[in-house]
Specification:
The chain is mainly alpha-helical. It is about 60% helix and about 0% strand. It folds into 2 domains: about 55 residues, Homeodomain-like (Arc Repressor Mutant, subunit A, Orthogonal Bundle); about 130 residues, Tetracycline Repressor, domain 2 (Orthogonal Bundle).
Length: about 190
């Protein structure tokens, strides 16, 4: 048993039982070991959850970085969509990710920010748009993953629309991009307004 095996099995357990039910006791039983042996690899459950969050984000964290000449608007949308897809790959993926620190991803974040700035996006609006997009995406996925207990659309009154999570995400993302585009077209504009 090594650290990677523990994380893989913990993510499989997450997919089976959900974040609320993941425990070191269940994980140890799944691995066929005593619970204290997990602490050889992870000092506390929060350390295990942090490692799970990093591993769960691997598809997004290894996606190609933007290159010079790429259209920044297309890249911004694609980056946010990649983040959403990755969060949706795991049961409770957004809850697992929420509150995690991107310490292992700082170089990639810096390169993404440098790309936007080089493409002509003012630094502060680029930072705020990336933050807004990230938080918006996590919030959308939290709602979507919580929607498993939603009433059947056929049981809703006729005047209550059925929420299309992807369409709502795309509409919100377009608004964020539109705001960033507006600040890019007017350098020096106050992003906080």
């Amino acid at each position: 048993m090594n650290r990677e095996t523990v994380v893989v099995q913990a993510l499989d357990l997450l997919d089976e039982v959900g974040l609320e039910t993941v425990s070191t006791r269940r994980l140890a039983k799944r691995l066929g070991v005593e619970q204290p042996s997990l602490y050889y690899h992870f000092k506390a459950k929060k350390d295990l959850l942090a490692a799970m969050a990093v591993a769960a984000m691997a598809p997004h964290a290894t996606a190609p970085l933007p290159r010079a000449g790429d259209d920044w608007r297309t890249w911004f949308l694609d980056n946010s969509r990649s983040f959403r897809r990755t969060l949706l790959m795991r049961r409770d993926g957004a809850r697992l990710h929420a509150g995690s620190s991107p310490t292992g991803d700082l170089d990639r974040i810096r390169r993404k920010m440098a790309f936007l700035v080089t493409a002509g996006v003012p630094e502060r609006p680029a930072q705020m748009a990336m933050l807004a997009s990230s938080r918006f995406t996590v919030g959308c996925v939290l709602e979507e993953q919580a929607d498993v207990d939603a009433p059947d659309p056929g049981d809703l009154p006729d005047d209550v629309p059925v929420l299309d999570h992807e369409a709502a995400f795309e509409a919100g993302l377009a608004l964020i991009l539109g705001g960033l585009d507006r600040h890019t077209a007017a350098p020096g504009a106050d992003i906080t307004r």
